[in-house]
Design a protein that fits this description.
mainly alpha; Helix Hairpins; two-stranded antiparallel ribbon; elongated
C-alpha cells in the first residue's frame, strides 16, 4: 500500500498543475488613456482616432495682401526698387480679389498697390508705365490721397518728354498750394514754344510762390523780357546784376555769366569782363565765362589781357570746340603785340595739330564711331551728348522728391488717409563740370573722341530718335534686371530648399543606421528565440514523456491493486466479516479512482502544457517578433525609397532644371535679346550723331586751319618787314595792329551763340 500512497501523492501534486495555469495578468489602463477616455464618453466611438489638436489658421486674404504691400513699401524706402517692382507686379497680376473693398480699416488694397507701383516705375524711368498707372489713380477715388503728388510728377514727366501741351493741361489740375512748381514748369514750356507773354505771366506767378523757385523764376522772367524786347537790355542787365547779389551757388554763376554775355552784346565790354571775372573759376560755367571775358577784353582793346585769357581757355579746356578759335585769337594777340616769332610758332602749331586732328576725324567719320558709341551706350552715358548747351547752363533738373521721397511714401501709409504733399527740391542746373565728371568716369574708354563728345548737337533728328530709343532701352534694362532678380530669388530659394533637404537626408541616413542596428538586434533576438523554441519543444517532449510514464505506472499499480483485491476477495470468500468486505470495496473504488484520474490527466496533458506561461508566451513572442521584423522590413523599404526620392530631388534642384527655373531662364534670355536689340538701335543713333558732329567739326577745322595758315603767313610777312626796316619801327607796329585777324575769314561762335565778333 505504500506504492499506492506514493502514487496518490504524485497525482495530488499533478492535479494542481493544471489548476495553476492561469492567464497573465493585464496591466491596469491609465486614467488618461484613449480607452479610458472612450469609456468615459458615451457618445464617442471605440477605437476612433483622436483629432489633431494643432491650430490651423483660417486664410485671411486682405491681411495677406496688406502684408505684401507693406513689404513692397519697405523695399522702396530702402531704395530696393527692383524687389519692390517684382513684388508689386506679381500682386497686380495675381488672381486674388485685390479690390478697394478688400482693404478695410488699416488694411491696404489695390489703390495703395498701384500707387507704390507708379512710384517704382517713376524711380526706374519707366515713363510710359508710370503715366498709365498714374492716370488710373488720378481719375479714380484715390485721387484725393495720391493725386497731389502724382500730378506734380506727371507735370515733370510731360516737360521732360517735351509734351508742352500736356504740361499746360496737367498744370491746370494742380491746386494753389503747388502753384509755384506748376507755374515754373508751365513758364518753361511756354518759353520753349515761344509764347513769351504766357511765359512771363507764369514766371511772375512762380516768383509769388516763393522758395524754392522764386529766384530761378526771376532769372527766367528776365530772359523772357529780353527775348520779347531786345531794347530792354539795360533794364534786364540791371535786374540780373541785382539778382546775382542775392543768390548763391550755380544759379549765381549762371546769372553772372548771362549778365556778362548780355553786357558784351550791348557793347559794355568792361562790364562784361568784370561780370565774367566774378564767376567761380571752379564751377561748370568757368569755361564760358573765361571765353566771354577774353572776347570782352579783346573788344576793349586790352590785347595782352585778351591774349592771356584766350591762351588760358585753350589750355584749360582742350576738349571744347572753342579751343581752336581761342588758340587762333591767342596768336592774333601776339601778332598785334609785335611778338611775331611767338605768333608764327602758335599759328604753325595750331595748323599742324588741326591738320592731324582733321585727318583722324575724317578716317573715323568715313567709317564708323561704333566703338565709342557702344562704350557710351553700354555705360548708359550717351544722354549727356544731347544736353541743351550745358556750358551756358541751359539744362536744369527738377527732382520730383529730392531728400524727402521716403517721407512722402511713408505718409501714404499712415493710419490717417491724408493727401500726400509733394516735396520738390529747387532747380539743379546742369553745367559743364557735371558733363566732364560723367565723361571722366568712363575712363579708360579707348577711341572716345572727347572733342566730338563736347561738340554741340548736330542739326539732325538724332536727338529725337535718341529720346525714343533710349526709353525702350531703359525699359529693356529694367526687364532684364527684373528677370535676373526673379531668377536669383528662385535660385536662392532652391539653395535653401537644397540645404533643408540635405539636412533631412542626413537625418534619414542617421535613422537608417539606427534602423539597421535595431534590425540586427531583432535578428539576433529572433535567432535566440528560435534556439529557445527548439529547447522548449524538447522540454515539452520530455515533460510529456515523463507524465506519460507516471500515468502508465499509476495505471499499472491501480490495475495490480484491483487484481490483488479481487484475489483477496476470492481467497477470503465467506470468511471475512462485513467490515472487511467494506474495506475491500473501498480499496477497489480507490484503484478505480486512480485509473480515472490517470485518464483525466492524460487527456488534459497537452492543454496543461500549452497553458504553462513559458510555452504560452513563446507563441505570442514569436508572433510579435515576426510582426516587428515585418515592420522593420517595411520601414527600411520605405526609408530607402524616401532616400532615393530625396536624392533625386536634390539632384534635380542642383541641376537647376526645374520648370520654374527653365521658364525664368527663358524669360531672362528673351529680355536680354530685347535689350541687345534696343541697345544696338541706340548705338546706331549715337554713332550717327558722333559722325555728324565729326563732319561738322572737320569743316570747322578746315576753316581754322586756313586761318592758322593765313596767320602764319602774316607773321612771316611782318617778320620779313621788320628785318627790312632799319628805323621806322612805329610804322610796322601800326601795321601789325591794323592787320586783319586770322579768324576774319571764318565764322565762329561768340559767347552768346551769335556770329564771332570781327576785328575792325
Amino acid at each position: 500500500m505504500l506504492r499506492t500512497v506514493s502514487l496518490v501523492a504524485f497525482l495530488a501534486g499533478a492535479v494542481p498543475l493544471a489548476a495553476q495555469v492561469t492567464p497573465a495578468p493585464t496591466a491596469p489602463a491609465r486614467p488618461d488613456s484613449a480607452a479610458a477616455t472612450t469609456s468615459m464618453r458615451p457618445d464617442s466611438t471605440a477605437g476612433k482616432a483622436r483629432r489633431d489638436s494643432a491650430i490651423v489658421p483660417a486664410a485671411d486674404q486682405p491681411r495677406g495682401v496688406d502684408a505684401e504691400i507693406r513689404v513692397a513699401l519697405y523695399d522702396l524706402l530702402e531704395d530696393r526698387y527692383i524687389p519692390a517692382l517684382s513684388r508689386l507686379q506679381w500682386l497686380s497680376t495675381a488672381p486674388v480679389a485685390l479690390t478697394s473693398a478688400s482693404a478695410t480699416g488699416a488694411l491696404r488694397g489695390r489703390e495703395d498697390m498701384l500707387f507704390l507701383l507708379s512710384q517704382a516705375y517713376y524711380r526706374l524711368g519707366m515713363d510710359s508705365a508710370f503715366r498709365n498707372t498714374a492716370n488710373t489713380l488720378t481719375s479714380g477715388t484715390a485721387s484725393s490721397r495720391f493725386g497731389r503728388l502724382l500730378r506734380t510728377q506727371m507735370l515733370l514727366d510731360a516737360y521732360r518728354h517735351g509734351d508742352y501741351a500736356q504740361v499746360t493741361q496737367v498744370a491746370q489740375t494742380i491746386g494753389p498750394e503747388d502753384r509755384g512748381l506748376a507755374a515754373l514748369v508751365t513758364g518753361l514750356a511756354a518759353y520753349q514754344t515761344g509764347n513769351l507773354p504766357v511765359a512771363s505771366q507764369q514766371f511772375a506767378a512762380a516768383q509769388q510762390g516763393g522758395a524754392p523757385y522764386a529766384q530761378y523764376a526771376q532769372y527766367m522772367a528776365a530772359l523772357a523780357t529780353l527775348r520779347a524786347d531786345t531794347t530792354q537790355r539795360a533794364t534786364v542787365l540791371g535786374t540780373l546784376e541785382s539778382l546775382a547779389s542775392n543768390v548763391t551757388g550755380k544759379l549765381q554763376d549762371q546769372v553772372r555769366l548771362t549778365a556778362a554775355q548780355l553786357a558784351y552784346e550791348g557793347g559794355r565790354f568792361d562790364d562784361a569782363a568784370r561780370l565774367a571775372g566774378q564767376v567761380n573759376p571752379s564751377s561748370g560755367f568757368a569755361a564760358q565765362a573765361l571765353l566771354t571775358r577774353a572776347w570782352a577784353l579783346y573788344k576793349a582793346k586790352d590785347i595782352a589781357g585778351a591774349g592771356q585769357a584766350f591762351d588760358q581757355f585753350a589750355t584749360r579746356y582742350p576738349q571744347l570746340p572753342e579751343r581752336d578759335e581761342s588758340r587762333l585769337m591767342s596768336g592774333q594777340a601776339l601778332l598785334q603785340l609785335g611778338r611775331t616769332t611767338e605768333a608764327a610758332n602758335v599759328f604753325r602749331n595750331v595748323a599742324d595739330s588741326m591738320t592731324s586732328e582733321s585727318r583722324m576725324l575724317q578716317a573715323k567719320a568715313q567709317t564708323s564711331m561704333s566703338a565709342a558709341a557702344r562704350a557710351l551706350v553700354q555705360a548708359r552715358a550717351a544722354g549727356f551728348l544731347f544736353l541743351n548747351d550745358p556750358a551756358n547752363g541751359k539744362t536744369i533738373a527738377l527732382d520730383d522728391a529730392a531728400g524727402s521721397e521716403k517721407q512722402a511714401l511713408a505718409a501714404a501709409f499712415s493710419d490717417s488717409a491724408t493727401a500726400i504733399v509733394p516735396a520738390v527740391s529747387s532747380t539743379d542746373i546742369i553745367a559743364l563740370d557735371d558733363v566732364t565728371q560723367r565723361v571722366d568716369s568712363l575712363a579708360p574708354v579707348r577711341d572716345l573722341p572727347r572733342r566730338v563728345v563736347f561738340a554741340p548737337a548736330s542739326a539732325t533728328t538724332n536727338p529725337q530718335l535718341f529720346a525714343q530709343r533710349s526709353q525702350a532701352l531703359y525699359s529693356a534694362d529694367v526687364a532684364v534686371i527684373l528677370a535676373q532678380h526673379q531668377l536669383a530669388e528662385l535660385l536662392a530659394a532652391q539653395q535653401r530648399q537644397i540645404a533643408m533637404l540635405q539636412a533631412l537626408q542626413a537625418r534619414l541616413n542617421s535613422d537608417a543606421d539606427a534602423l539597421n542596428a535595431l534590425a540586427a538586434r531583432v535578428t539576433a533576438a529572433r535567432d535566440s528565440l528560435a534556439h529557445l523554441a527548439v529547447a522548449l519543444d524538447a522540454a515539452a517532449t520530455r515533460l510529456r514523456q515523463m507524465f506519460v510514464a507516471q500515468i502508465n505506472t499509476t495505471r499499472m499499480l491501480a490495475n495490480e491493486n484491483r487484481a490483488a483485491i479481487d484475489s483477496v476477495k476470492g481467497t477470503l470468500a465467506g470468511a471475512q466479516t462485513t467490515n472487511e468486505y467494506a474495506l475491500l470495496d473501498i480499496e477497489s473504488q480507490t484503484a478505480a479512482t486512480y485509473l480515472q484520474l490517470a485518464s483525466t490527466i492524460e487527456q488534459g496533458l497537452d492543454k496543461a502544457l500549452g497553458h504553462h506561461p513559458v510555452f504560452a508566451k513563446r507563441d505570442s513572442l514569436n508572433a510579435k517578433s515576426a510582426r516587428l521584423a515585418q515592420l522593420l522590413t517595411d520601414n527600411q523599404s520605405a526609408l530607402a525609397s524616401t532616400r532615393q526620392l530625396l536624392s533625386g530631388e536634390i539632384a534635380r534642384l542642383q541641376s537647376g532644371t526645374t520648370d520654374r527655373a527653365r521658364a525664368l531662364q527663358a524669360t531672362l534670355a528673351s529680355a536680354e535679346a530685347t535689350r541687345a536689340a534696343a541697345e544696338n538701335a541706340v548705338v546706331a543713333v549715337v554713332d550717327a550723331e558722333l559722325r555728324a558732329r565729326a563732319t561738322e567739326m572737320i569743316a570747322s577745322l578746315k576753316r581754322d586751319t586756313e586761318a592758322a595758315e593765313f596767320g602764319s603767313a602774316s607773321a612771316s610777312f611782318f617778320q620779313a618787314l621788320d628785318a627790312g626796316q632799319t628805323g621806322a619801327t612805329g610804322t610796322t607796329s601800326s601795321a601789325r595792329i591794323s592787320a586783319p585777324a586770322p579768324t576774319a575769314s571764318a565764322p565762329g561762335s561768340s559767347p552768346t551763340g551769335r556770329d564771332t565778333p570781327q576785328q575792325k
